[in-house]
Amino acid sequence: MSQFSKPFHIGALSLSNRVVMAPLTRMRAFHGRAPGDLQVAHYRQRASAGLILTEATSVMPMGVGYPNTPGIWSAEQVAGWKRVTEAVHAEGGRIALQLWHVGRISDPELLDGQLPVAPSAIAAEGEVNVLRPKRPYAVPRALETAEIAGIIQAFVQAARNAKEAGFDFIEVHAANGYLFDQFLHDGSNQRTDQYGGSMENRARFLLETLDALAQEWPAERIGVHLNPMSNTHSMHDSNPVALFTYVAEQIAARKLGFIFSREALVDGVLPIGQHMRKVFPGTFIANDGFSAEQAEAVLASGAADAVAFGRAFIANPDLPARLVQGSELNALNAATIYSPDAAGYNDYPTLEQAACLAK
Hints:
The protein is α/β, with parallel strands linked by helices. It has helices spanning 37-45, 75-90, 148-164, 179-184, 199-202, 204-213, 240-253, 273-279, 292-301, 311-315, 319-325, 351-358; strands spanning 8-10, 13-15, 19-21, 51-53, 57-58, 95-100, 117-118, 141-142, 169-173, 222-226, 258-262, 283-287, 306-309.
């Protein structure tokens, strides 16, 4: 029996297979940042995943960092997401909403002229994605201590909205150089209040948010997205093993349902994930460029309970079946990842469709 086809659990909820759809920003929420027909079709097509993690979804207008990414703060957005969850559930799937605030990875053009916010007034390296003309990331405004409670409340309201929209889980995006990740890493967090300095202080914002969310959702239905590689948007920390092991311990203490860990294998091992796994007894989802063979090995060894795929899921709506059968995968067309329509989004064929076309 393929490792992929074995069911797994998050808390008490059984999931049909160990192939998870990773969050994939696609920038197609064109009307008020609400999901529409394109998203309904897209997620329905991929409902055979053991679990779908939605594209990152902003909890407030000041949390956006890209054009046409979805939100979860308005009634229109909630209604749009409800259509998505109903479509996925009608196909027997499970779906989690990824809750997002980008922090400094934004631009005043997307924020009604306001500066992005961050733990400290330190700009990310590089240029702002997508916007033209090209420009470097702005030096963000350091959040006042008193403002942090308001952002936590925005996550709480987003969690309430996610429940109204019918999601099975919520996942807090604390990875890839976005706001929570900026607080976690000492390279981007130079604060001197209770949210800066020590590792425990730098994790405080995330942990306070998780505690608040656990008042709204069962703890086992909450997950956290982490990137121990610290390889995006200028993230660096003086002791990443200690940092991420501590965060995993704290997530375990709260009995949360899962950790999604973005970390590539090195010599067949998850360098930091192996330490996190030792202290976190909940469901551990591994992700970052795994081949089918690597994923099978990780699952067989017990290093992870499930493996998430991103780019492979873009091009293969029936990815779990293809992995179990060892079938050839559709090639990804990188030129259409961010197309403003269904091209490269909803037009990749399933195995069944490809067979019919070949006749």
